[in-house]
Automatic annotation (TrEMBL):
Signal sequence segment: 1-18
Similarity field: Belongs to the TonB-dependent receptor family.
SUPFAM superfamilies: Porins (SSF56935)
UniProt name for this protein: TonB-dependent Receptor Plug domain protein
Main localization (coarse): membrane
Keywords noted in UniProt: Cell outer membrane, Membrane, Receptor, Signal, Transmembrane, Transmembrane beta strand, Transport
Compartment annotation: Cell outer membrane
Length: 172
């Protein structure tokens, strides 16, 4: 039931953004890919999770931990969160005791060596280009490992060689 409510709220948020901007909505298989599309390009929506800004492709949330979702768009969004919110904001409030990890916490929690901290990050087969915005619900993380050779989707963006691979729950 919670997954259904989460999906409905996420779908509503996407439709709301799309209607206001006359954009075509994209509904994907997981919460990491809430994107709004016009005719030529893709634009990320800013997520604010318990007051911490992140982008949809830099976050993972266990749907069991979501208490509420709010939508802010237009001038109000940019007024509150600046230029990065130009495509709208989804504000998530999570249940008490939900623990989020940023990149620094992930390094400590999963004992990533100092040398490996500078490697590219891949979250669920997608390159994370903004480490500062990485924010993961600890209960959504399945594994964190160093790959000797990353074989994933975006080879143009990622240099060949090692990468930090984070596998997290995906909302279906």
């Amino acid at each position: 039931m919670k997954k259904l409510l989460f999906f409905l709220a996420l779908s509503f948020a996407q439709m709301s953004f799309a209607q206001e901007n006359n954009l075509e909505k994209i509904i994907s298989n997981n919460s990491q890919n809430v994107k709004i599309r016009d005719n030529n390009n893709f634009q990320n929506v800013l997520y604010v999770i318990d007051g911490m800004p992140t982008f949809s492709d830099c976050s993972a949330i266990n749907v069991q931990n979501i208490e509420s979702i709010n939508v802010i768009k237009g001038e109000r969004a940019t007024g509150l969160y600046g230029y990065r919110a130009k495509n709208g904001v989804l504000i998530f409030t999570t249940k008490p005791n939900t623990q989020f990890l940023n990149f620094r916490n992930i390094v400590k929690e999963f004992k990533i060596s100092k040398a490996d901290q500078f490697l590219p990050i891949v979250l669920n087969k997608h390159f994370v280009d903004e480490k500062d915005y990485l924010l993961l619900d600890k209960s959504a993380i399945i594994s964190v490992k160093i790959l000797e050779e990353q074989p994933f989707v975006e080879p143009v963006l990622l240099p060949r060689g090692k990468a930090i691979y984070i596998e997290a729950m995906e909302t279906k």
